[in-house]
Amino acid sequence: MNQELYQYTLRLADTALILSHRLCEYTSCGPFLEEDLASMNTGLDLIGQAEAFLKYAAEMSGNTNEDKLAFQRNEEDYKNFHIVEYPNTDFGYLVTRQFYMDVFNYFNYSQLVNSKDVTIAAIAGKAIKEVTYHLKRSSEWIVRLGDGTAESKERIQACLNDLWMYVDEFFETDEIHENLQRQGIAADLDVIRKQWHQKVEEVLQEATLTKPEGAKYSLVYGKDGGHTEYMGFILCEMQYLNNRYPEAIW
């Protein structure tokens, strides 16, 4: 098994999986019905992406399947970004978390459609259509809240500031990523960093909001198996049914 490719695939899968779980937690809590459905549909898109990547990882492993990877791993075996673990504090935090992730996903998948790994390229080819819509939707919400009332502007700016510390992880490289990038499999994160900041600045300027600033906050990231205090609670809920009835089938 190509261990580096396996780990990279899990990073893509787990970030989509945990974010989809967070979005689905918000079901029935949206500000109005249409938005409630839109959040759920975004979560369904993400879980579809996660399933595809987990299936590919399971095939590489040869001794598991996508369901076991999703529900039967220990906390340190998940490789998702820290930001997707952040709770649904309120709608502003949900929108901000989604916006930061949507910008990254859009530029990441835009490169991965040309990956030399044909499976990753195929999954990215389907995902780019979905994340293009996700980015449009979350960008519109940032503008709507930022250029709305004095209260909505203040609150969405606070959300942007609070979640900003998590964005550095998007662009951190390691030996796994660098090796796969040289092989033409992984995306160039230096290019994505520039594109991400440019797009975020563009949207925030339209929203009359201020781009946050902040120092790097962590030396151990989620994609390396280190997690925030929120991750254990997510897994308790996510894995409960599987742990309670391990032999159950649908």
Task: Describe it.
There is one protein chain. This protein is mostly helical and 250 residues long. Helices cover 66% and strands 0% of the residues. The chain contains 11 helices and no strands. The protein has helices at 3-25, 33-61, 66-71, 91-112, 118-146, 150-163, 168-171, 175-182, 189-206, 231-238, 240-244. It starts with a helix and ends in a 6-residue tail after the last helix. 40% of the residues are buried. The mean pLDDT is 93.
Structural topology:
Blueprint (H helix, E strand, L loop, with lengths): L2 H23 L7 H29 L4 H6 L19 H22 L5 H29 L3 H14 L4 H4 L3 H8 L6 H18 L24 H8 L1 H5 L6
Helix pairs in contact: 1-2, 1-8, 2-5, 4-5, 4-6, 4-9
How many distinct beta strands? 0
Helical residues, percent: 55-70%
Radius of gyration: 18 Å
Low-confidence parts: none
Task: Give me the CATH fold name.
Answer: Ferritin
Short description:
The protein has helices at residues 3-25, 33-61, 66-71, 91-112, 118-146, 150-163, 168-171, 175-182, 189-206, 231-238, 240-244. The chain has 250 residues and is an all-alpha fold.
